[in-house]
Design brief:
The chain has helices at residues 25-48, 54-77, 83-105, 109-131. It is mostly helical. Helix 2 (54-77) packs antiparallel against helix 3. The longest helix has 24 residues, at 25-48.
Length: 137
């Protein structure tokens, strides 16, 4: 019979190819990138949202959805010992990003910016949680 050549699963991709980040690194990288965009988006919302058209607001909506799905990356990189604390932050992040929908629909830039500020704080708490590993005695 004919054989079918399949590429290796992403988890086994050759990192030296430069096309896949190792597990954990990819998730962390996406989280950092998503968080770093929050302040830029907030600035745009507060300074120039009067000039936003439907495409701009659609972009805001998709960015807030990306924040929502960041919870999955957070789950993937959280050590078991921090799971309970991380789960609480992830639930808050999802709750706040969901709460942005009415403000986005209403084109309420200040409302969205306030929610982004809260999301940014949650990202910071999550990163602090990851780095808060007790020293070995």
């Amino acid at each position: 019979g004919a054989s079918l050549a399949l590429p290796p699963p992403a988890a086994f991709a050759d990192v030296s190819d430069g096309n896949e980040l190792p597990n954990g690194v990819a998730q962390f990288s996406r989280l950092v990138k998503t968080r770093s965009g929050i302040s830029r988006l907030k600035k745009r919302l507060l300074e120039s949202s009067a000039d936003f058209d439907k495409k701009d607001w659609d972009g805001v909506d998709s960015y807030v959805r990306r924040i929502f799905t960041s919870g999955e990356d957070m789950k993937a990189i959280t050590p078991k010992s921090k799971k309970a604390e991380a789960d609480k932050l992830i639930a808050e992040l999802k709750e706040y990003s969901r709460a942005a929908e009415p403000s986005i629909t209403a084109r309420d830039a200040k409302g969205v910016a306030a929610i982004l500020t809260k999301c940014d704080t949650i990202f910071q708490q999550f990163f602090d949680l990851q780095s808060n590993v007790p020293d070995q005695i």
